[in-house]
Amino acid sequence: MNSVWSATANLKSKKTQKQTIHTDVLIIGGGMAGVLCAYQLQNAGVNYVLVEADTVCSGITKNTTAKITSQHGLIYDKLIRQFGVESAQLYLQANQAALEEYRTLCRDLDCDFEEKDAFVYSLDNRNKIESEVAAVDRLGFPAEFVEQLPLPFSTAGAIRFSNQAQFNPLKFVAAIMPSLNIYENTSVQELTDRGAVTNHGTITSDKIIVATHFPFINKHGSYFLKQYQHRSYVLALENAADVNGMYVDEAQKGMSFRNYQNLLLIGGGDHRTGKKGGNWDELVDFAQKHYPEAKERYRWATQDCMTLDGVPYIGQYSKNTPNFYVATGFNKWGMTSSMVAARILTDLVMGKESPYAAVFSPSRSILRPQLAANALEATVNLLTPTPRRCPHMGCALKWNAQEHSWDCPCHGSRFTEQGVLIDNPATGDLRRNPS
Ligand SMILES: Cc1cc2nc3c(=O)[nH]c(=O)nc-3n(C[C@H](O)[C@H](O)[C@H](O)COP(=O)(O)OP(=O)(O)OC[C@H]3O[C@@H](n4cnc5c(N)ncnc54)[C@H](O)[C@@H]3O)c2cc1C
């Protein structure tokens, strides 16, 4: 089940750790977030090392749909109501700046970067779209209400952000990584007062950035309460439509569309990891109905971390851990969010102020309704009797018949049928032969 990115990009391998290393900043995790942190630190002249447990971008990033936009669903109306106009403006500015940085960088890179307009549509609620247009207008950004979309169903309307972008994320990473100081197949197993212990030795460092998708240290920051994972499915169809833009439904279980070369990528079938959802079946039914001449070329699935308030956690890992940073909770908008993280964390490790730090601070209030939902999910699954339990915190695992994996509904760890770890926050395989 390879994504079109894995099939079309060629990432050259990097060395593995052979001896004790000392560095000023250790970055753990080589997905889009970690790689961009490495890129920005290198440009700022900071001494750093990035370690990746497997190979670069072998985690979530290889299975993204790679829309680069500051339009993260209908977020701005919600942000204004939750945090006020100024914070919403900073969120928008940070993500627009990230988009601009990609635009400049990609000019000289072979990564199929294309300018496209981004749209969020609603199937049945025109008011929601109108409120978002009004909210974005308050922020001084030019968004428009659109009546008609080139999609094979009618909508109640959409909001357009012009001049956003899409690319091939693995070609992008392949182009920027050759000069970066990366060790592959080097997994951090434990943090110490002086740095980290890996499967190949020790790394001493003054500062650490955790970019492991779901943070794997439970002692600080309460990430196991502050986020859960949500899974989505993608089909890449040949001989379907050119939709000339990027489209997402405002509803969490809705669909998304973009083209890549001669393919139409359709996303959807979503569900909380470990729960039931439409999966690829929903997308196959949709394709057969609306694009009967189309042929499936690729299919893949992946998941992302969803925060309590829709804003990523970027900054100091917890209030009590100076020199220890995190980038997580991208809510399925990890392309611009990774660039935002790289900018903020580079400033913070260099002792500079970041205008955006407060908005993304992981130490902001956690008093949101989703906190109760996460706690309830954890309680139910901790109390469910079953022999297969997640080594992360002990929740009951659920069988995923579509993907033949054991999935954790609490925090989203996943394991193969044989119990080998696929997705974190668990850090190891299942114990053998549960009765
Ligand atoms: C279906 C879907 C579509 C999406 N589409 C979009 C989109 O169109 N636009 C957008 O902006 N975002 C999108 N996203 C979100 C985006 O893909 C993710 O937010 C982003 O790729 C996450 O990157 P990351 O670096 O945080 O994680 P990852 O890519 O998972 O990287 C983390 C890395 O850390 C490594 N690691 C873990 N533990 C250790 C350890 N102990 N030691 C060393 N290394 C370790 C892992 O091996 C992994 O490679 C989408 C998400 C989904 C689910």
Q: List segments where confidence is low: pLDDT < 50 over at least 5 consecutive residues.
A: none
Shape: globular
Question: Helical stretch count?
Answer: 11
Task: Compute the number of strand runs.
Answer: 21
Query: Sheet with the most strands?
Result: 9 strands, mixed
Write a brief caption for the model.
By secondary structure, the chain is α+β, with helices and mostly antiparallel strands. It is built from 11 helices and 21 strands.
Provide a descriptive summary of the structure in words.
The structure is a single chain. By secondary structure, this protein is an alpha+beta fold. Among the domains are: 4-64 and 171-225 and 310-360, FAD/NAD(P)-binding domain (3-Layer(bba) Sandwich); 369-423, Rieske Iron-sulfur Protein. The chain has eleven helices and 21 strands. The protein has helices spanning 4-8, 32-43, 75-83, 85-106, 126-138, 169-176, 223-226, 279-290, 334-349, 357-360, 369-383; strands at residues 21-28, 48-51, 67-68, 114-122, 143-146, 157-166, 182-183, 188-192, 195-198, 201-210, 227-238, 246-249, 256-260, 263-272, 295-307, 313-316, 324-328, 398-400, 405-407, 414-416, 421-423. Strands 3, 4, 5, 6, 11, 12, 13, 14 and 15 form a nine-stranded mixed β-sheet that branches. Strand 13 and strand 14 form a beta hairpin. 50% of the residues are buried. Flavin-adenine dinucleotide (FAD) is lined by residues 28-34, 51-54, 57-61, 64-67, 187-188, 211-213, 216, 232, 234, 267, 302-304, 330, 332-336, 338, 424.
